[in-house]
Amino acid sequence: MLAKRIIPCLDVKDGRVVKGMNFTGLRDISDPVELARYYNDSGADELVFYDITASAEGRKLFADILRRTASEVFIPLTVGGGINTVDDFDRVLKCGADKVSVNSGAIANPSLIGEAAKKYGDQCVVLSIDAKRVGGRFRVFAKGGREDTGLDALEWAERGVGDGAGEIVLNSIDTDGVKQGFDLEMLDALAARVSVPIIASGGAGNMEHFAELFQHPGIDAGLAASIFHSRQVDIKELKRYLREKGVEMRL
Amino acid sequence: MTAIIDYGVGNLFSLACSFKAIGAETEITRDPARIEAAERVILPGVGAFGDAMEKLRATGLIPVLKREAGRKPFLGICLGMQLLFDQSEEYGLHDGLGLIPGRVCDLRADLSDKSLKVPHMGWNSLEFVRDDPLFKYVGNGEYAYYVHSFYAKDCAENTLAVSRYGNVAVTGAVSRGNVYGTQFHPEKSGDAGLRLLRAFVEL
To answer: pTM score, two decimals?
Structure first.
């Protein structure tokens, strides 16, 4: 049976993990490589690295972090942040990324998805969508959720999949940071529209929220950052708990 | 030394790193002399079958690979495993290397539950159907990481392990003589994957 996936997300700026806190037992709580190793040991099914660096030196540090992570952590690695061209795909794939996540870059240049899928395969292209309710519809926001693009999130997802996106990360701005559970309504609406794997993001506050999420068969994975970094939720414990609840989990 | 065949398909960085992690020396190469000198061979691959066979043909390595496959442990990974078979129906009919009898077919067409997603992507548990030294350090039921839309079938007699996806028993690992194949990516299957590679280098 195919297992549901638990995915921690690391925001990396200038070579350090942002939002990494309250970690005990680690030498360096904000070293992305060490954190990646820790999550791998905890049973994370995949890792997502978001590069939120603006500077060229930061980019170089990020590439180095990717290479170091890929050389010691042997689970799938998705990289996002600052992916605007096919050359950006090339840059991170060469450093050991398995999948590349596009967001604002695809909104600015929608042909990016198709070009990248043709060159690297659908399985390599992840469309990441930040969405929020506006006037009873789900709207796509760009620039880290600051800018309303006017695009309908479900139509945008459908179009992305049609162009070759092999997976979708749906981050609900409405539930993000609130820790009251994933945006199940928005996720179900997406699952009804596309047939590629869906990674849910935004809103996880405790283990029960993941159990609720996986009662929705159209959802393949749950992604979170701060609750894992802060160890409010321990991945090993979470996966054991979910398996007890009857969710297929790799333990 | 383990030769990883470089024929312009996919990223070999993680694969080379995974062998390094188990202390095995590798060389990414398309040089026939190096492939002959190697103790074992890895045939990687991602992308479409026809395109990959075309690229492999362009390197001129097909006769070398067929010969070496009879002499030393040989492992095809993901699309590299599919290439071991007689034929694939991915975007038209294409001949493979013919090292293992069987054909590569569209997974979606064989799934009775059409709500199941294709590609079959993620961690699926391995169900051993035959004992093999390749599984020396891996347990029945352990999980492996898959990403694929086509799968090998009509190869039951050489199948080592399957993974269940809906009604389909996806061919997960095969072997015939020295020739091995895994549909999943051992280099992305965490600790279990590394243990499988360790068993392979000990063959």
So the answer is: 0.94
